[in-house]
Design brief:
Layout: H1 9-24, E1 29-33, E2 39-45, E3 48-55, H2 62-79, E4 83-88, H3 94-104, E5 114-115, H4 117-126, H5 128-133, H6 135-139, H7 142-149, H8 153-157, H9 161-170, H10 175-187, E6 189-194, H11 200-213, E7 217-220, H12 224-230, E8 237-241, H13 252-271, E9 275-282, H14 283-292, E10 305-307, H15 315-327, H16 333-340, H17 344-349, H18 356-362, H19 375-384, H20 387-395, H21 399-410, E11 417-418, H22 419-436, H23 445-453, E12 458-461, E13 464-467, H24 470-479, H25 483-491, H26 496-508, H27 514-522, H28 528-533, E14 537-542, E15 545-550, H29 555-569, H30 572-583, H31 591-605, H32 613-632, H33 637-650, H34 655-675, H35 684-701, H36 706-718, H37 744-752
Parallel strand pairs: 3-4, 4-5, 6-9, 6-10, 7-8, 8-9
Antiparallel strand pairs: 1-2, 2-3, 11-13, 12-13, 14-15
Helix pairs in contact: 2-3, 12-13, 20-24, 21-22, 21-23, 27-29, 29-30, 29-31, 30-32, 31-32, 31-33, 32-34, 33-35, 35-36
Length: 756
């Protein structure tokens, strides 16, 4: 079902131009907008001029349409076109069509040049490529909406039918949409990278909608292992991994633990005939990851990176974004009149900080009402300082809501925070803050805060809580600077990873002087029992079986925290706690993290001036012993490859020789397992990943492994999967490519549609 009512005036103009070009085989160009709301297109060949007039009149009366048509005759008398075509979204009866023909007189050659809603829909049935290229026409179809809501996408976005419709109304198609399909079609993988608020996730969702319309399945990646298991050559699937490297800064731990798995998954997708993979990340995070990760920056990884930059948003697209948001909001006619006064629109559209997210926020109904005369300047102020929007909204919240947002900020960010984990941390922190600042509190504060904040500040899905978008976290990062508040937050940490987040935040604050840093560092002394006892893993029930899952920070992350606070405070209690962590067997080792992080900590200890030679030697020996115990315990070859790489890079003699001998024995045992046929693999990707890591561990130990690698290569050939006929998504670019100079007059003319 085609829904013209979901189109804005500009959307309708572009649709009509696409249709008339297809019907006539002639090229039409945009003719600009008039202050009376008319939107035109024209085609000229020699002395012959054809003019197209588009009138988007869904909610108007026949009287309004006829009155508008009479005004157009004045224009026609000046232009004197050889042919005139009139397209309207209004449903035309034969009588109404005849009345329009009578008004236009000799300018229309036949009533066939007058098109109503039914004629447009009929043309779309004839030209399916036009229908496919205008996403808003089909996205509101009930069948498509049901497919989207039952695809798995709704569990990722917690989105409703109404929200999909509202989101599509304000979406402005731009070159990135077509480019995304082109890259996915040829490479199967796409990284959408760009600044915060530029529309990375929106673009990814719109692309996913198109694939879902064409019968593909959707799967949001929360675990690369789960994604790997979902690849099925008999089932067309598009995978989506949002903010895969962190939300506001690089999640280094996530990068270390996932980079090889990500590389393997991407290689699998790139060879697949029925899978696509979209990832999003902020551009500065992606560049930092490339510097740190061999896999991310390796040509063999071949991630098809696409930079979604604000530079792709032409002046017309920027204007269209603002127009769509205002036209679908509750902003009054008086607000728009103020925008049209003077050069406000020009200053907003051309602002160096122009950002779709800010435009969305400033036109939101949830914001505090703004008087019409203050509205234009409020948009400029928001563009000058985007965080000011959240600051005003945050200041109006109850304290119990503010405390929940603060708690969430310092909780684990990578995949959101489980509601019960958030509740557990919120309780003591809220109680302490309320007591300190003499604020009333109730047993129901947590649940009430969740309800109040949902949609406005947070999203709740699959029993996890996260910020509704990264700009809320950005705001809190700049807002949480008060030393007294941060000390209270530290003292109420219920998990080590929460305390580490607070510590990292404090280190990022430039205004913190040495005395403030020292005061904050000392406050971690009360957390030593937690640091020494909070489990790194916990046994949890998963369906019919039990598995160990990460519960709290790794041993190496705890050692780093204690080293940082010791270096500032030089309190022996922190040094003693480090020794306990490195010698105790009460905490489970996280081999993927500890095996590579401990060698780095070894290197850091060499640079800490506050340690005496005796202290430094003792800690270095404990680090080496811990690494040795991890190596001999038996670890996966991928973790072993990283461990060897980091040992060789960071450990110094004589400790290095000791670890080299242990590594040599481990590699020898691995080679023996291959020769004896004790290893088994499920598919070719698993073999290729093993070969890649096997080469890494044997290159360092200088084993001659040519024959063994050939054996593994033959095994990979035997496991090669059958080829399937490649299936492409049925997306086609719009038939119209418009290159034009969008003037200040065009800009104002566009917005006159909102007050006409």
């Amino acid at each position: 079902m085609v829904n013209l009512w979901n189109l804005s005036h500009i959307d309708f103009e572009e649709l009509c131009i696409d249709i008339i070009q297809k019907e006539t085989g002639e090229k039409f160009s945009s003719f600009g907008s008039g202050a009376d709301g008319g939107i035109d297109g024209r085609h000229s060949k020699g002395d012959n001029l054809t003019v197209l007039q588009c009138k988007h009149y869904l909610k108007s009366s026949a009287y309004d349409l006829l009155r508008s048509a009479k005004k157009e005759v004045i224009k026609l008398d000046k232009l004197k076109p050889d042919r005139y075509a009139f397209f309207t979204s209004y449903s035309l009866t034969p009588s109404l069509s005849n009345q329009l023909a009578e008004i236009f007189g000799s300018y229309v050659q036949t009533t066939d040049d007058i098109w109503g809603a039914e004629d447009i829909k009929s043309a779309l049935r004839r030209h399916q490529d036009i229908l496919k290229s205008h996403i808003k026409l089909w996205l509101t179809d009930s069948v498509i909406l049901e497919r989207i809501l039952h695809s798995g996408l709704e569990s990722f976005t917690q989105i409703t039918k109404d929200e999909i419709i509202e989101e599509s109304k304000v979406y402005v198609r731009n070159p990135s949409y077509d480019d995304a399909f082109s890259i996915l079609d040829s490479k199967n993988t796409l990284v959408i990278s760009g600044p915060p608020g530029i529309g990375k996730t929106t673009l990814a969702k719109m692309v996913c909608y198109q694939y879902l319309k064409d019968g593909w399945n959707f799967y949001a990646i929360n675990s690369l292992e789960q994604g790997y298991a979902k690849v099925n050559e008999n089932k067309k699937t598009i995978f989506f991994f949002d903010d895969f490297l962190g939300k506001i800064e690089l999640n280094r731990k996530a990068l270390i633990s996932n980079e090889s798995a990500l590389a393997t998954f991407v290689k699998r997708i790139q060879k697949s005939e029925s899978s696509k993979f979209i990832l999003t990340t902020r551009s500065h995070i992606f560049e930092e990851a490339r510097r740190l990760s061999e896999n991310i920056d390796n040509q063999r990884f071949q991630l098809s990176k696409y930079i979604l930059d604000v530079g792709l948003y032409t002046r017309k697209i920027r204007a269209h974004i603002l127009f769509n948001h205002i036209s679908t909001s509750q902003i009054s006619r008086e607000h728009v009149v103020e925008l049209l006064d003077g050069d406000w629109l020009k200053r907003i559209i051309d602002h160096k900080n122009y950002n779709p997210r800010v435009i969305s926020q400033i036109s939101s109904e949830n914001l505090e009402p703004i008087q019409p005369k203050d509205y234009p300047n409020s948009i400029l102020l928001a563009l000058d300082n985007p965080n000011s929007i959240w600051e005003k909204a945050f200041s109006t919240l109850g304290f119990h809501c503010q405390h929940l947002l603060i708690t969430l900020f310092f909780c684990k960010e990578y995949l959101g925070t489980e509601i019960e984990d958030l509740r557990m941390q919120y309780g003591p922190l809220h109680s302490s803050l309320a007591h300190r600042y003499s604020q009333a509190r109730k047993p129901t504060d947590f649940d009430e805060a969740l309800k109040i904040l949902e949609s406005g500040f947070i999203s709740i899905k699959n029993k996890t809580v996260d910020f509704v978008n990264p700009s809320v976290r950005d705001f809190l990062k700049g807002h949480l600077k008060d030393n007294e508040l941060l000390l209270l937050i530290i003292s109420n940490s219920m998990r080590v990873n929460f305390a580490i987040k607070v510590s990292e935040h404090i280190k990022s604050l430039k205004q913190y002087n040495e005395s403030s840093q020292a005061e904050s560092a000392k406050s971690f002394e009360s957390l030593i029992p937690l640091i020494l006892s909070s489990p790194t893993k916990k046994l949890v029930q998963m369906d019919s079986y039990q598995v160990y899952r990460h519960f709290d920070s790794s041993i190496s992350d705890r050692v780093k925290l204690l080293l940082d606070v010791y270096d500032i405070t030089r309190l022996k209690v922190f040094e003693d706690a480090i020794k306990v962590l490195l010698t105790s067997d009460k905490l489970d080792v996280d081999t993927s993290s500890d095996s590579s992080s401990l060698p780095e900590i070894y290197s850091e200890i060499l640079t800490i001036d506050s340690l005496s030679n005796r202290q430094r030697t003792e800690l270095l020996d404990l680090i080496v012993n811990k690494i040795e115990s991890i190596l001999v315990s038996g670890i996966h070859i991928e973790d072993l490859a990283y461990a060897i790489e980091y040992v060789y890079e960071f450990i110094e003699e004589p400790s290095l020789s000791k670890l080299k001998n242990i590594i040599k024995d481990i590699v020898s045992s691995e080679i023996n397992d291959i020769e004896q046929g004790d290893l088994s693999f499920d598919d070719v990707d698993e073999v290729e990943l093993y070969i890649e890591n096997f080469k890494k561990i044997t290159e360092k130990t200088e084993y001659c492994t040519k024959d063994i690698i050939n054996t593994l290569g033959s095994l990979a050939v035997d496991l090669e999967e059958s080829e399937y006929e490649h299936t492409r998504v049925s997306h086609k670019s719009s038939t119209q490519v418009v290159k034009e100079n969008f003037t200040d007059t065009d800009l104002k003319s566009l917005f006159y549609n909102l007050i006409g």
